[in-house]
Amino acid sequence: MDIRLKRVYEIPSEEDGQRILVDRLWPRGLTKEAAQIDVWLKEVAPSHELRKWFHHDSSQWETFVERYSAELADRPEAAACIKQLREAATAGAVTLVFSAKNVDMNNATVLRDVLQQKISYG
């Protein structure tokens, strides 16, 4: 299983494999051609309320991880996206693409961890 993370503003490469945007909002100032997104799964992104609450405040990171993980477990539309992501990740390289400036504390890192656990434990 090869799940990578990459900011949408970084230059796409062939090594990215399937590029999947996991944000609810389209990245500012970026065209579809420049982003080279294969799939946009906004349904797997944090809710609008959670996204606004967190607002990339690193002091809230642990609580964000808990709340977002709970959202992923509770929302049926997110479960369908996770299944799609699991299938893609077992078929080849997948890059979860996000727009957050913080490359360590963002929804894509939480989603990657959730996917890795689900793939490891079925």
Strand content: 5-15%
Total number of beta strands: 4
Q: What is the overall number of helices?
A: 5
Radius of gyration: 14 Å
Instruction: Give me the strand/helix succession.
Output: EEHEHHHEH
Content-based structural category? alpha/beta
- Average pLDDT: 93
Low-confidence stretches: none
Determine the N-to-C terminus distance.
13 Å
Structurally, the number of domains stands at 1
Q: What percent of the residues sit in helical stretches (DSSP H or I)?
A: 40-55%
Major sheet size, sense and barrel closure: 4 strands, parallel
Any overview of this molecule?
The protein has 122 residues and is of the alpha/beta class. It has one domain. The protein is 46% helix and 13% strand. The protein contains five helices and four strands; from the N terminus they run ββαβαααβα. It has helices at residues 32-35, 48-54, 61-74, 76-91, 107-121, and strands at residues 3-7, 18-21, 39-40, 94-98. The chain has a four-stranded parallel beta sheet, covered by helices on one side. Strand 2, helix 1 and strand 3 form a beta-alpha-beta unit. Helix 3 (61-74) packs across helix 4 (76-91) and helix 3 (61-74) crosses helix 5 (107-121). The longest helix is centred in the C-terminal third of the chain and has 16 residues, at 76-91. The two termini are 13 Å apart.
SSE inventory with pairings:
Blueprint lengths: L2 E5 L10 E4 L10 H4 L3 E2 L7 H7 L6 H14 L1 H16 L2 E5 L8 H15 L1
Parallel strand pairs: 1-4, 2-3, 2-4
Helix pairs in contact: 3-4, 3-5
Essential attributes:
122 residues, alpha/beta, 46% helix
